[in-house]
Every structure is written in structure tokens, then in C-alpha cells.
Amino acid sequence: MSGESPEGRAYVGNINVSARRARKLLLGDLKLGKLVDWGTAFSLWPVHLTTSCCGCEFAAAWSPRFDNEQHGALPWIGPRQTNMIIIEGTVSKKMACALRLVWEQMPQPKFAIAMGACALDGGIFYNSYNIVRPWQVVPVDVYIPGCPPRPESVARAIIELQRKMRKKQIASKFVEEGWRPDKEYVMPKEDLCSWWRG
Amino acid sequence: MEPQEVVDLVRRVLGDMVRDVKIWKGNDYIEVEIDASSIREAAARMKEAGFDHVKDVTAVDYMKEGRFRIIYNLSSYNNFDLSYYIVGLAYDIPRDKPETVSLADIYTSAEFQEREVYEGFGIIFKGHPDLKPLLLSPPVAEQKPLRKDFIVREEPEIKVEKKR
């Protein structure tokens, strides 16, 4: 510590020095968009929409052993307070309606992770008459293979999504342009909610 | 209770409605074949004899023989001796006219399972209080996916639009 001033370090609460450093950081080296990307990457809120058996692994991923909250993501209750959806496993045709309704309610910018072999390409239900592929319903950012994937894979997918967000500057470009330029809008080909009468 | 005693009980209860009784391998499943016309009478008598709930309602499609076989799997909660056994109450209906009567007012637990048979096979249960598809959506249920002539393609064609 000799010859080096402890002022401005985190453990010395000198607010004037810290404010000067922060101003220099924000206005000089960093652009504000990077801050938006950084902030969005560590405030991911997955919505609870358990479609299939991968939901057990999803639950284990936030349990104390594989604590995914340390990566900056925590499952939240309502779709209107969340910005990420993890599609856990098979999506049947009736569930696809619910998936799309939840997706439409989530605020922008929003991200989707498809989890498990069924969410990739049907898995063991690949020729079933009653499933849809999730990429036909919502635009998927990250895929997790496995049947079912381990909770570590979920953590890896979240870290991968954060890396992608900060590298491609998804959130800040959304703030600038109002839509996500890196992802095409997905419109389901068939009428998913035709069975549902108000 | 031995399986043969259950067979005797069923024969005594149902009388001359019984066409055929078969004890399946494993000695815990007994299939009782009866006439299609006497199913409601048979179900009411079986309920009085101690078989108090329906575990399962299912159907088998014999396409070449031109018939559906509808099977009600009955068992008991309250009678300890009977609770080890499952008695399958089976009857045949013609395949080109898939209509039969509902047992939902006798056995309450048959109500949802008759709806599943309805959506899978297109068999209409007359007298059912709320006959509509249970798990499938109506466009899928119209295809009658559990019938033998429903073609399941091995590799469904998926069109992926290439990105520019």
C-alpha cells in the first residue's frame, strides 16, 4: 500500500473521488449504450412457464446448489415483469397458444432460450401430431441440447446469452431503434388459438 | 381372494350377459366380454357388487375386423379383497357407426376419460354431460389420431427459410 492512495477504492467511502471517476468513466471511456447492455445482461428475469419435464432441471438450476441467481437471473411471477423466457421441453399445440400469449405480454427487449431436445426439434416426439417447434412460435436466441440438460447447462446458456447481448449490443440497439435488428420477427404460420373461444 | 373367485363373482353378478371371461397373465387382470346393448345394466350391477370406480376407459381399433372394442377398467377402493384386481368390462361396436352410451352418470370418474376416447377415436358417447375434446385442440381431434388409419409420417417435412 505504500505510495498508493487508498482513496477512491471501494472500501474507502470518499464520494467526491468516486463521482469524479464515474463521470470520467461514463462520459469518456464508456458510451452509455454499453451501460445499457451491461445493465440488461445482469437483470434477466425468466418467466415461469413450465411446459414439460425440463422444468425440474429448471427448478434445480435456481436451487442453492447450482445457484443461478449469481449470474444475474431470477425467475419471476408475472409475464409483464419479465424479459426472458426459457421454453422447457415439448410444446404441444394447445400450449403453443399460451406460449405466444405470454411472449406477447413481456416487455421489450425480450429473449428466449429453448431448453432440451424436444424444444430443439421435437426430441422423441419428433413425428407427433400434436407438437410444434418453439422456433415456429417465438424467436429463439440460445438453444440448450440434452435430454434433459443439466442445471449447469442452464447457467451456461444464461452466460452465453449475456455474452451475446454485450457483444452484439442488443439492448442498446433496441433503445436506439425501437426493435431488435439482429432477430427476425416470427409470426406463427397456423392459427394457434383457434380452439379458444374468448 | 383368488382370481377364480373374482370370476365366479362376476359371473354370478352379471348372469347371462357374460359372453366370455379371460384371466390374463399375471392373475390380476380379468377381461369380461359382454353384449353392447347391456352395458349400462352391467355397469350398475358391478357398482353394486363392490367395483366402485373406473380406473381407465380405453378403446382398441380392430380395423380389419371392422369393430371398436371399448374397455372400462373397474376396480375397488373400499373392498380390500377386490382392490387387488382390475376387471375389464369390454364390448364391441361397429367401426362404421361409432356410437355408444355413456356411463358418466354411473361412474363419475369415467367422464373425462370418455372425453379422451372421444377425441382420440371419434367415438360418440350418448348421454354424456359435456362431450368435447379434453387434451387436444378441436382441429387435431377432428383427425381422430388414435385410429389405425391415421397416418403418422416418419420424418415430417420442415421448411426452414434460409436467412439472406
Characterise the protein shown here:
- The complex is a heterodimer of chains A (198) and B (164).
- With 198 residues, chain A is α/β, with parallel strands linked by helices.
- In chain A, 39% of the residues lie in helices and 10% in strands.
- Chain A has a single domain, classed as Rossmann fold, CATH 3.40.50.
- In chain A, strand 1 (46-47), helix 3 (54-61) and strand 2 (84-88) form a beta-alpha-beta unit.
- In chain A, helix 2 runs antiparallel to helix 6 and helix 3 packs across helix 6.
- The mean pLDDT of chain B is 89.
- Chain B is an alpha/beta fold and 164 residues long.
- Chain B has a domain at 3-109: NADH:ubiquinone oxidoreductase Nqo5 subunit (Beta Polymerase, domain 2).
- The A-B interface holds A 93-94, 121, 126-130, 133, 184, 194-195 and B 133, 135-140, 143, 145, 150, 152-156, 158, 163.
Task: Please give the structural blueprint.
The complex is a heterodimer of chains A (198) and B (164).
Chain A: H1 15-29, H2 32-41, E1 46-47, H3 54-61, E2 84-88, E3 91-92, H4 93-105, E4 111-115, H5 117-121, E5 131-132, E6 142-144, H6 151-168, H7 170-177
Chain B: H1 3-14, E1 18-23, E2 29-34, H2 39-48, E3 53-62, E4 67-75, E5 86-94, E6 99-101, H3 110-121, E7 124-126, H4 138-141
Parallel strand pairs in B: 2-5, 6-7
Antiparallel strand pairs in B: 1-2, 3-4, 4-5
A few lines on this structure:
With about 200 residues, chain A is of the alpha/beta class. Helix content of chain A is about 40%, strand content about 10%. Chain A has helices at about 15-30, 30-40, 55-60, 95-105, 115-120, 150-170, 170-175, and strands at about 45, 85-90, 90, 110-115, 130, 140-145.
Keywords:
heterodimer; A: 198 residues; alpha/beta; 4-stranded parallel beta sheet; two-stranded antiparallel sheet; 6 strands; 39% helix; B: 164 residues; Beta Polymerase, domain 2; elongated
